[in-house]
Design brief:
alpha/beta, five-stranded parallel sheet, about 15% strand, globular, binds 5-amino-5-deoxy-1-O-phosphono-D-mannitol
Length: about 375
């Protein structure tokens, strides 16, 4: 049942190209337009939306953080992302023009369910992004866009995360389409780029040998830090969460720009620091800033593990370990940049003798608040 893999997690990591392809399947027509008939919220209502609020927990929350960049960029609708467990206790400002998106693999997470109930009580429309047919969250929402990752058994979420990202991109593009934003041309390009992502994820999976080897060499470490900017920041948070869950190590993700506001004090000789580097094309300012962040931490002794696009030569002199990912538009990079972090955490957990599919103290779906 593990398809020849030692763990469900490895099987699910390997299934990601298919999961991404399946989640795109039938949702983009031949002309490059989004066909999201499942989103039964009337187009007239979607045109009136003046704020998007994403609620989710854990890994799904990280997908939401990435979605914010895409939604705001492609639709110019303000978007907030909030941990579902915090949401309703702060009396959030919601009305009929707010679209709430609840992201959940299981569809049974109590915190997320309570958040969406609260949103509907305030008159907001709720769209669920969910991987489990007929579960409670989609049943209680106004509409659902299913992710087609297939059953995810390992407690640590992998393929569900990538498909949540795809679903979020599709929703963002769809909102852009129904509202006719001035990014129409860009949207067509993104749709084309999205259809190439299953192949890109496949390529990353084919190059993971050195990442595994590196992970094993770090099994005795106590701490690993993760840095990113822009969409690389939530990817860093996700990399740290995977490592906590699986390797039981102290792991933290930071926005690289925050380094000098505190975290840089943590850098010491030989501390492993994973840095997610955005594409040097397009937003080159971002790229240059993170290259100087890598220099700063390396000058203080950090062991730098750099995840950067193929052909990005600027990072080479400062990378103790370099992990290449295919060239993608910046907003889509999380689909490839997350994969090495999943493999890294899984391998570290194995090297430390931990139970990969069923980490201590954790449950696959958290049905209590
Ligand atoms: O089923 P959900 O997507 O609602 O679950 C949310 C979190 O509990 C989940 O993502 C958790 O953080 C995972 N164990 C992360 O790997």
């Amino acid at each position: 049942e593990k398809g020849g893999h030692d763990y469900f997690m490895l099987k699910e990591i390997a299934e990601q190209p298919k999961a991404v392809a399946d989640t795109l399947l039938g949702r983009i027509d031949g002309a490059g337009s989004l066909r999201l008939d499942e989103v039964r919220i009337p187009v007239g209502v979607l045109r009136q939306v003046d704020k998007v609020v994403i609620v989710a927990c854990g890994t799904a929350f990280h997908a939401g953080l990435i979605a914010k960049y895409a939604i705001e960029h492609w639709t110019r609708i303000p978007c907030e992302v909030e941990l579902a467990s915090e949401f309703r206790y702060r009396d959030p400002i919601l009305d009929q023009q707010t679209l709430v998106i609840a992201v959940s693999q299981s569809g049974e997470t109590m915190d997320t369910l309570m958040a969406l109930r609260h949103a509907r009580e305030q008159g907001s429309k709720v769209l669920a992004i969910c991987n489990t047919n007929g579960s409670t969250i989609p049943r209680e929402s106004d509409a659902v866009l299913y992710t087609h990752a297939g059953p995810e058994v390992a407690v640590a979420s992998t393929k569900a995360f990538l498909t949540q990202l795809v679903a979020c991109y599709l929703v963002a593009l769809y909102l852009g389409q129904v509202r006719g934003t001035k990014f129409a041309d860009e949207i067509r390009d993104v749709v084309r780029d999205l259809s190439r992502m299953p192949g890109a994820v496949e390529r990353v999976l084919g190059t993971m040998g050195p990442v595994r080897e590196l992970a094993r060499s770090l099994a005795g470490k106590g701490t690993v830090l993760f840095l990113g900017r822009h969409v690389g920041y939530p990817v860093a948070l996700e990399g740290a969460l995977k490592l906590k869950e699986l390797a039981y190590m102290h792991a933290e993700g930071f926005a690289a720009g925050e380094l000098k506001h505190g975290p840089i004090a943590l850098i010491e000789e030989d501390l492993p620091v994973v840095v997610v580097v955005p594409s040097p094309r397009g937003r080159s300012v971002l790229h240059d800033k993170i290259v100087s962040n890598i220099q700063e931490i390396r000058a203080r002794g950090a062991r730098t593990i750099v995840i950067a696009e193929e052909g990005d030569e600027a990072v080479v002199p400062y990378a103790d370990h370099l992990v290449r990912v295919p060239v993608t538009p910046t907003l889509l990079q999380p689909l490839v940049a997350t994969v090495p972090l999943q493999v890294f955490a899984c391998e570290l957990a194995t090297a430390r003798g931990n139970e990969v599919d069923q980490p201590r103290n954790l449950a696959k779906s958290v049905t209590v608040e």
